[in-house]
Amino acid sequence: MLGIQHRPSWLTVLTPIALLMALPAIACAHGVTEGDQSFMEQSEGVHLFPYAYLGAKHMVTGYDHILFLIGVIFFLYRMKNIAIYVTLFSIGHSLTLLLGVLGGFHVNSYIVDAIIGLSVVYKGLDNINAFKRWFGFQPSTKGMVLIFGFFHGFGLAAKVQDFNLSSDGLVWNILAFNVGVEIGQLLALAFVLIAMSYWRKSPAYEKHAFASNVSLMAAGFLLFGWQLTGYFASPVN
């Protein structure tokens, strides 16, 4: 974690602006496509491989989940530690995904996605050691990753709950979807680790680490604000 602040680079200033401009398009891209939705609503019986593919696709295109994972592994260098944190995150979102879809536990998608945005803000704050320096205490990082994993799982469940799915084969299909989510998470994580391994070899890593986490927080606040706007603008509320 960082204890020293560095002067933000021009990239740090422009990144939140670019995210703000691109957010509507990204939000639409993150949702399930009409073709995928049509398949899920019209299919009956067990379809393990298609649902696994859909789960992997959803995670790989899930910018909010990927941003959180970037924050989680930002200062993790040993594969053992990475595996521990990613496992905690996986346990959290797997449990609530299954609870939401199979257990019928419904949450407001705007609210849970807003909390997911705050999870990105939290990880940026944690990485710059803000809680210790500003508030004099340090929340359990592992515990917070698990807790926010619960919310990320409810976010996944909320997407699936929007569809009228057949009960025939639903349990096996959702289990396959969850397996696909884990596969997609591993693929996204591998890409992030490769990119960060190259970045860490550069002197720019230490120089811009603080600024990068500020940008991460900015992205989280944008996600939070975007979802709250959707919540209050929704005619259902």
Core attributes:
237 residues, mainly alpha, 10 helices
In brief:
The protein has 237 residues and is mainly alpha-helical. It has helices at 10-30, 34-42, 48-60, 63-73, 79-102, 109-127, 130-135, 141-161, 170-200, 204-233. The longest helix is centred in the last third of the chain and has 31 residues, at 170-200.
Description:
The chain has 237 residues and is mainly α. The chain has helices at 10-30, 34-42, 48-60, 63-73, 79-102, 109-127, 130-135, 141-161, 170-200, 204-233. It has one domain (43-232). 35% of the residues are buried. Residues 3-22 and 25-29 have low confidence and may be disordered.
How much of the sequence lies in strands comes to: under 5%
Q: Roughly what is the average pLDDT, rounded to an integer?
A: 85
| Strand tally | 0
What is the element string, with H for helices and E for strands?
HHHHHHHHHH
Indicate the topology.
Layout: H1 10-30, H2 34-42, H3 48-60, H4 63-73, H5 79-102, H6 109-127, H7 130-135, H8 141-161, H9 170-200, H10 204-233
Helix pairs in contact: 1-10, 3-9, 4-6, 4-9, 5-8, 5-9, 6-8, 6-10
